[in-house]
Amino acid sequence: MPSLIDSHSHPHFQAFKDDWREVIDSALAKDTWALLVGTQQETSKRGVEIAEMYDEGVYASIAIHPVHRHPSHYDENEISFQTRGEVFGYETYKKLAQSKKVVAIGESGLDYFHVPEGFDQNQVKQDQAKMFREHIELALELNLPMSIHCREAYDDLYNILKDYPKLRGVAHCYLGDVKQAEKFFKLGLYIGVTGIVTFKNAKQLHEVVKTVPLERILVETDCPYLTPEPHRGKRNLPEYVEFVARRIADLRKMDYNAVAEATTKSARSLFNI
After folding, report:
1. Bind-site residues for a divalent metal cation
2. Which burial class, exposed, middle or buried, applies to 205 when counting CB atoms under 10 A from its CB (0-12, 13-18, 19+)?
3. From residue 161, how far is each of 155, 243, 267, 272 by CA, in Å?
4. Which residue ranges form the domains of the chain, and what is each CATH number?
5. pLDDT in tens, the chain (273 residues)
6. N or C: which end of the chain has fewer CB within 10 A?
């Protein structure tokens, strides 16, 4: 069993175009596995391609991120062009998911923070919700868990998720409160904790981490973003998930190895790896 699993990472993004193999190999050398999460068709395919190069320790999740539903979002760390605005191709992603290395559908969900200018906000929300439900249907058909993105939309997200009691998954980069987390747990979901937990001002997240059951927590980097202390300000790496686990151990006043073991066990169970 690996020491740690980075349950949400993007080392297949443009930010790693020159050294992705070294980055992944370095993580594996430190006994850290990684789930490569796609955000649109290009990065989903790339994640699968890279995961298939490894016998063990590297896996893929495929989906369209909600900000890519409409043409406006640009991130030089992610892709080399401005998003065209993508409609979810159910059969395309179903075919891509035939790879044994695809262990989840995601990241998909709702994002009310990045609502593009020039679009009706209500329409954007409706479009995101429709696409999220399409991802859920695919996950259920394929019996795969989901990596769920949510930003400033937890209530609406919950109202959708409760329609699908058989869905398994993780609320990636969780930033809600304890009460909301407990609602997700009742649906059978996990929460993903990123390097934000190492930030001094992340008081609400600290309270969540100290309060909720450890067995419902997964650790993740979301690299190249959200780099934890003491590397904040630099490009994040999958191996930095160790700093996330160590901070959780500190907050819970627990042994680090116990946190690493519990979060790894949960990730392996959820993603069947």
Report:
1. 8, 10, 107, 149, 172, 222
2. buried
3. 10, 31, 20, 21
4. 4-271 (3.20.20.140)
5. 789 999 999 999 999 999 999 999 999 999 999 999 999 999 999 999 999 999 999 999 999 988 877 666 555 565 544 555 677 889 999 999 999 999 999 999 999 887 777 788 898 899 999 999 999 999 999 999 999 999 999 999 999 999 999 999 999 999 999 999 999 999 999 999 999 999 999 999 999 999 999 999 999 999 999 999 999 999 999 999 999 999 999 999 999 999 999 999 999 999 999
6. N
